[in-house]
Request: fold
Amino acid sequence: MSEGQLPSNVHVLKPRTMSLSDRLDLFLEKNALAPDETLVRRDPTRPKAPGINAIRCACCGQMEYLTREYCRCGHYLLGQLEDEFLEWKDGLKRASEDIAETTEQRLRAVRLMSLVSMPFIVAPLLYFVFNRSEITIYAIMSTAIGVMILGVMAITEAHVCKPLRASKALLENCTWQHFLESRSWPGNISENLD
Reply:
């Protein structure tokens, strides 16, 4: 074989892998630090994998731009993106329902605690109705304590309901644009590309 001629299987030759030790190789493989054996060359006309304007085709597995309706393999990307949007919206609904359930359980406890204030408010009123006397310092202090307890419970209820109101507001205002923005958040990129 001359220097100018190459064997026909030259494109499938793999470089030799050098191993320092079996324990090091085992550690690298266990912690997913070992390099992949098969290197896939990225097509320069396709977007990079962790991009905000990229979507992975469910048919061929290649990255494609969000603005394209069809992948180069012929798969309908817009439909795939719409399916992701509907799945995202259903996830928001489920999360909102879960938040509503936990909020309702917490509110039951808060409302039961507000019953503690009722004797402080009702007792002075009954005393005043049955005795027809002047308002005493006991009635004023007791009513003030009851109103303070109700105020604390109202503030607690507002604090407990805050995540539920935020979740419902997000659910009411979720649009296609919100979905595309949430896809591009750094924590969501890996989820959306899989």
Remarks:
- The CA atoms of residues 167 and 173 lie 10 Å apart.
- The longest helix spans residues 77-114.
- Residues 88-175 form one domain.
